[in-house]
Structure formats: structure tokens, C-alpha cells
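Quick sanity check, ABC transporter permease:
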Amino acid sequence: MNFALYIAKRYLKSKSSNNAINFITYIALIGVILGAASLFIVLSGFSGLRDFTLKFTSVIDPDFKVESVSGKSFQLTPKMATDLKAINNINLYSKIIEERVIATSEGKQVMAFIKGVDQNYEKITLTDSILYNGSWLTQNTPQIVSGYGIASALSIGVLDYGKAINIYVPKPGKGQITREDQAFNTFSAINVGIYSLNEALDNKYIFTSFNTAQNLLDYKDNQVSSLEIKLKNPELSSETRTQIETALGKNFRIKDTSQLNEALYKMLNTENLAVYLIFTLVLIIALFNVIGSIVMMILDKRKTLSTLYNLGSPISQIRNIFFMQGVLMSVLGGFIGLVIGYGIVQLQYSFSLVMLTPNLPYPVAIKLMNFVIVFVTITVLGVIASKIASSRISKNLLHKL
């Protein structure tokens, strides 16, 4: 066994004759344990909140969304459709028409986006899971499914035939407008369902059938705003993306789930980094106790160290003893902290000890990456702290007896 490691283990296990040093050592170890446990618990809690937040967008987001680089729409040619169907990992795709509209009902109006979807959309998005009330729309009809926020703003319900709902979109083209009907395309709709996901989406979309949106916007056959694609195996998304780019050419932008929610992912990643840095600072403060503990141990063992030095042990080897002791203390504290943190997170996951609402437990997620992050952080900081403390050993210190 390595000489420095052997002595370091002995020093770590044995008690000092000075109770103050023992007390400082215990405080240092407890600080590392609590710091590691706290960091793991916070990261697990944030992972749970992240998954909980993304769950709402993942319900409605496709694996890929294809848009034109230039312009609001593009022509889906038969060749493009054939090439897409030839890609093995594509389960199916839905043709989408999307445009900003004005929705009115009995003097009330809201700005929203009309989203015309074909029959495949129900297979890409689990529409039943987002419906708050009513049912999904039927193709080739003037039916709509509105968001909860839009329905509230217009004071409309489901299958309310007594209330006319009108959808307006500006007509394309140029020329002087002399009458209102020259400025807008419009259709009267019947609301058959209300969906609820989150506040932003509930106030954004009004779903209708593809043909209805096509007629409203005067789109040609196979003219679409985008394609939403569902994959058979999302793990092969990188290879499939390349195949789609080859099939469609360079005039199209392909977005995955994270790119569709770029602002949300950026916010979550920033918050995660901020939380990590804050609790890493707490760990750094806790590791000052480790430095103090090692320095006190060096002073307590000075006579023994002087004997080792006189017997021929180099200064570097003596320093290495206390360096190893600090690393062992940090690693041991980190391991115990991880076990405690895992136990607390598992209790929350299994028994919902902390509740956000009477029916909603605080979400947590146990992920391997969080174990790695905490352990690596503790180890790196422990190595730095141990290096600082062990560097206090010098020839002058050993000669002062």
C-alpha cells in the first residue's frame, strides 16, 4: 500500500488527544456531508421541475418541424412527399397551415393563430390528452378547438350554436380597399372543444381542419406552412434529420423539440446553472472547514512529522499524507451525503412528503448525471482544499520544535 495513503487512513480513523481538533474534524466532515446532500437534493428537485415543465410542451410538440427558410409557406411536391415516406424512421407527418387571425364573438375579439391540421395530426399529438372539454374537430368542417384562454376571452363554450364565432384573416394582395369584406377572408366557426396545456399555448392557438384553413387563406393544393413529423425511434433523430435535409434540400429549416422551445430550454438551463453555482459556493465555504481541520492536524502531529522527516521522508511525501487525508475526507463526506440525499429524494418520490398543492406533490427526478455532478464537484473542490492545506508543511515548520 502507498505509504502516504496508509498514514492518511490512520490519521483519519484515529482520534487526536486534543478534543478541539476532533471537534473541528467532525464539523468539517458534517459540513461536506450536508453540502453534498443539499446539492443533490436541489439538483434532483430542479430536474423534477424541468421534466414537469417540459411534459406540457412535449405533448403538443412533434419530433421535427419543417419550415421554409424564406416565406410563410411552401409547396409540398409529390416528389418531396414520396422522399419523406421513403425514410424508414418517419412514422408519419402532418401538413400544417398556420397564420395570425382575429377571432370575434358577440362584440369580443382576440388575436390568435389559426392552426389547420390534417387527419394525421391526431396521431402525432395525443389530442385526447390536451382536451379540457368537448371533443376533437372533424375534418372538412368549420369546426374549431380553441385554447382555454381564448375561450374565456370570447366567453364561448362547447357546441354553443347560439353564439356566432367569426374568424378573420387579412386578404393577400394589393389595391385600394373600399369595403370591409374586401379586406378580410372570414368564416363562421363552431367551437367543439377546449384544450388546456399552459397559459401561453392556451392563449395562442385555434385549431381547425386543414381544408378550412386552406380555404380561409386562399392556399393552393399542397401549399403548407410547415410539416410536423413523428419518428418511429426518436433516438435515431440525428440520422433521420440528415435524411430529411437530403430529401427536401437546403431551402428548409428543420427544428427539433428543443429548438421549438428554445427560450424555455435556455431559461431552464440558466436557472439550473445558477442553482448549481449557488450551492457550489456553499460547498466551498464548507470545505474551508476541511482546510482548517487539516492545518490543525498538521500542527498536532508536528513532532511525528519531524521524526518522519529526520528518518528520510521527503517534504513532498509528508505533504502527500495530509493531501490524501483531505481528499479521503472529502470523498467520504461526498459519498455519505449522496446516500443521504438519495434517501430523502426517494422518500419524496415515493411518499410525496412535500406538496405544491393539495393534489400535486413537489416533482423530483433521480438522474445519474446528478450523482456524477455532485461527486465530481466534491472531489475537485476537495483536491483543491487539500492541496492548499498540505502546502502549509515546510522545512521551517518541521524544524520548529
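Posting the structure with no commentary besides this: The longest helix spans residues 19-60.
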